[in-house]
Model the fold of this input.
Amino acid sequence: MTDGLLRRFRWLYAPRLADFGFALRTTIAALLALVLALWMEMDDPQWAPMTTWIVAQNSRGQSMSKARWRLLGTCLGAVAGVALIAAMPQSAWLLFPVLALWVGVCCGLATFLRNFHSYALVLMAFTSGLIALNAANAPHQVFDIALSRSTYIFVGILCESALAAVFAPSLIDVARREIGQKVGAAIGQAVQALGSMMQGHEGAFLKSRTLLGSVFSVSDQIEFSEVEMQHRTRAGDHARAALASIAVVMSRGLGLSARMHATGDLPSAFVTPLARAQALFGNIQAALAGPDPLAAIPALRAQLRDLGAECRQQLVNDIIAVSGPTPPGRAAGQQHLDGYILNASLGVLLVRLDAALAHLAATQVAPAHDHFHFSIPPWRDRTAAWHNGIRSAVAVLMGGLVWECTGWPDGATFAMFVVVTCSRFAANENPVRDSIGFLRGAVWAVLVAAIITFLVLPDQAVWETLVLSLFVPMMVGGLALRDARTAGTAAPYNNFLPFMVYPGNQSRLDELTFFNTNSAVVLGIGCSVLVFRLVLPFDPDAERWRMRRQIVRDLRRIALAPAIPDPGAWVNRLTTGFARLVRHATTMSDAQTNAYLDGVLSAMTVGLNLIRLRGLLARGSLPPAVVATVERTLAAFGAWKGGPPVELARIVAAALAQMRAAVDGEVNLSRRLDLGWSVAYLEILVRELHMNARFFDVTRRFHLPPDGAAKGRA
Done:
């Protein structure tokens, strides 16, 4: 027990050098911001060190990105705050509904953005709320309040950026190497999973699902490396394109593995390319884990192209075998058709893997005249956006109602921190969990601030001793911020400690003011936590249900859209859903998580095969009777409302039977091959609809069968 306790607090008594450096640098920057604010005789100097702690992040790119978006959100929020007071001076019963509407709109829209782009919108919301509530009793001072609030932010950001620049001077080269390492590691994990899947290992499916879920969390981190590189190259775009190619490769690999399993005995024409592919995947993994992966990429790409040529040769051999003067028997013809499809599928997979390696190389050595651009759209949940907006608006109205009805002298502070908390966490995926950590950190800040305020500061009279008094508590908070187990509490502790000590040039915080002000802060945060729990609370089951309904709507769109959707865009969209499921997997059992991930994989596979069917139709090479059959299948998907897919599966199975009969009777080789592809696509559709019927039935919540056993794909 003692050993466990010691390990738990290792971050405090034996921190890593990088963690100690971060805490020391940020503490010095925060105290420097405080000293500058005191020297400038600002009214509320505590906001400057608060800003320093807020923008300080684990990486320099994160800090720079957050600082920029915070500055933008603060400036726009200041303008909005001034406009609110100018439009409704001394009209509290009109100001609060309008402020609630404004905060709700900002928080709702923030749901559609990622990273600190979302943070800028919530900054607009709570900056405007802070300014409007501070100026509610003195409307003629609103411009001065807005200007001072913006100045605090600028001073805090300037100090954090200056200190970080001193300790991290060569960001561009480091950021480029980090991008290459992240993408190389993702490709290495992908080829390892592919090799395991090709060998039929059961655990490979779970690993592939986890990898698909983590690909786009790496994509989000790449944005911060781009900030460190000052967007001087297209390395970030190439990295995102490489990750998207990995997602397509994994999807192709899962489909190829399923096709191999359905085929049974593998065709002889596919055995040699498969063995070479398994060996090549191992070589790629070893080379990317080596000391100089960039130098190995040209040779690896040459091997991929050579193996792709082997796949094309084998499928040509199958074509020749079925087009000779003496047609093979039905069983032999099916073997040749399976060999053609398997080799063609492996060839497409190798092309996408080659593209991933090409983009990896481009992240380190930019091609000449490189203007490449690639972006990945986020998953958008309109219902979650509405919930976030309504919840935030209700919280603001509640804060204003408490202030107006009680006449509390510190009611403005209470209402301000209701706005701050509800805005800060409204766009989070799980605001209840995150806001509780925020409340816990505020309570710790009150306790430490009480010791400093009542026992330390009364005997001091100069800013030097004030700085020394705050140094140790801030260092402890900085170290705690770098430990994953304490980061959720340490962040608000660091943010609120300067505010609760309330340093000033000509004043000391007396006991009455301390308890009134800080109790208003804690109660304001607690009120927001209560709102998050009671008003449209976050429900992971409901979110997953919405995701399933959205997936079914997307499948209908794929079947009916005038233009054939892009397969890469579809895979990217479903992979972002994977990422959300993996992040929320702690709320489900392992079996339930696996079943959900299987369902999303199944939906991805269904969508890809619908796109491929539409591609065959667009080529115009299918016989008219087959065209009508495929069109009826697509129309059935377009008319599907998301109920039990029994009837849909029956329609697809009937189409499959007609397609198989058409293959047997077709003498034209080109049409026969296209019909073979159609058969393969329809076989996959039938299998996926049967295996994941419960997942596709979005008229009810998805649960495992009573025995609790998740159905495996292998």
Notes: The first helix runs from residue 2 to 8. The CA atoms of residues 286 and 408 lie 67 Å apart.
